[in-house]
RNA sequence: GGACCCGUGGCCUAGACAGGAUAUGGCACCGGCUUUCUAAGCCGGCGAUCCCGGGUUCGAAUCCCGGCGGGUCCGCCA
């Protein structure tokens, strides 16, 4: 038994290949193991790379290697086909391994052993000036999924939100809240602090247009604030807190919970930003009091490669505070990961240079995502051209409720609401987490509201089906792996056996969308099994064996859904 | 001017980092499947110059070079 059946298969395949290579007197080639097309076996590798060295045709090499390849515990046979070695699993041995592993692990199947590696994962960190919109919502959705996946892979993960309560945008918001008459701002779209306060921010931006006196006033406040005026900092921070509360409510609704918050203003008040300046001062150039470094020698290119640490008045700039912030991270973790919009790429490069110059113990890993735009262009809080996370969530839940009512007219309204929440909010997350982060998304309502095919409800429905069978099943006997012979059940066994391996791959590569693809495949294979293989009416020992497969399917689908941030309903 | 990312059927998308067998799915469209564990399902059909042009290679969606198109960035903002 093992925590990772597919990993065991891969290890054995490598071992058998090496043994065949050694027997043939061939140097090892790291030809990747691949999955051959359906019907050609379970694992394969190409022999073209060997052909040249051996001065033989690839097909002959494949035949030679096959002839010399021993039989394994899990891999029963291999055959040479047109320059490939195709290996086939011993289906009974592999089914036994998957059943044993899955049943022994129970609900924790897929969880890998603890690694004793602390990960500090910074995500979201949106400016608290207004409601979070779907352009930025990609950040918590990807970040939280990565946190969940890495936890399942055995890492000690803590998530953190850097609250940018410093800077012009915050001062402007504060000024607006303090000075604009409530009668002069339009009513908020929702009764939430973030929606209420953003109106003052937008109005303040509007008033600032061409208003030099206000411009000057704001400038003064920024200076006071950033020079460490504690009273002002507290006031601004309290406004930021009010907006943040609204943002966190939105995040809570989609099951994103952040472990800790770091307030940027603390870096000023504690003097840690100042210390960064002192430690870097002699490496930087001074221009009228402003410290800067030319980053051109560090491989950074562009119109202007000068990177400023301080203003000429001596106040620190954001990158300086970010260095200070990251220094605190390495006291608290072994791996720091930042999930950021692609607009932060240069900034992160600069940050890494800064951290190296100051002798930091490490640099953060970065996971960048492209923005979600509307068909009419980029979203902007300042202009109000946004679709808020809350709007999208409301719409999806409402649509999901219609669907549930249509399909399950007998359900009481409370139950409809519960399922609609699970489905609608799941759709929100799935539509983002399933895509490669680096691809930009143009948000379209008709696509977001689709509940069929490759969609959240598809995955959740498969899970609900497993629960439906299990709730009707009663007990079961001991499973017998040799009872499993139908191609659809063998395919399901293989997919279920790959789950722990997928957790590992998605965690190590920091690619949450791998797990979304896997979850879809697992759901799809379960649905095919469901069509082809009757469970409850089957004869023993097939019934008990299939029932065990359904149990493991429920765990795999439930855990896979959990990892990408979707809830797994028992009925829909 | 420069840097980074993206470009796959009408639309969306996997595969690209580790080059390999007839390029993965979904939406839409057409046609089928429910006396049997929930049809948000399943099966079949239609549909692709993998942006373009060179190069490397036995072999390129994948690697390299050059274009084109889109996104992002190059502030004593954050």
Write a structural description.
The protein has about 575 residues and is of the alpha/beta class. The chain has 3 domains: about 5-90, Gyrase A, domain 2 (2-Layer Sandwich); about 125-375, HUPs (Rossmann fold, 3-Layer(aba) Sandwich), CATH 3.40.50.620; about 430-565, Isoleucyl-tRNA Synthetase, Domain 1 (Orthogonal Bundle). The protein is about 55% helix and about 10% strand. It contains 21 helices and 13 strands. The protein has helices at about 5-25, 50-55, 60-70, 90-105, 135-150, 170-180, 195-210, 210-225, 230-255, 265-270, 270-280, 320-330, 345-355, 390-405, 415-435, 445-450, 455-475, 485-495, 500-510, 510-530, 540-565; strands at about 45, 75-80, 85-90, 120, 155-165, 260-265, 285, 290-295, 305-310, 335-340, 365-370, 370-375, 440. The strands form 4 sheets. A 5-stranded parallel sheet has the order 6-5-4-10-11, sandwiched between helices. A 3-stranded antiparallel sheet has the order 1-3-2. It has a 3-stranded antiparallel sheet with strand order 7-8-9, with no helix packed on it. Strand 2 and strand 3 (about 85-90) form a beta hairpin. Helix 11 (about 270-280) packs across helix 12 (about 320-330) and helix 18 (about 485-495) packs across helix 21. The mean pLDDT is about 95. It binds one RNA strand of 78 nucleotides through strand 1, helix 2, helix 6, strand 8 and helix 12.
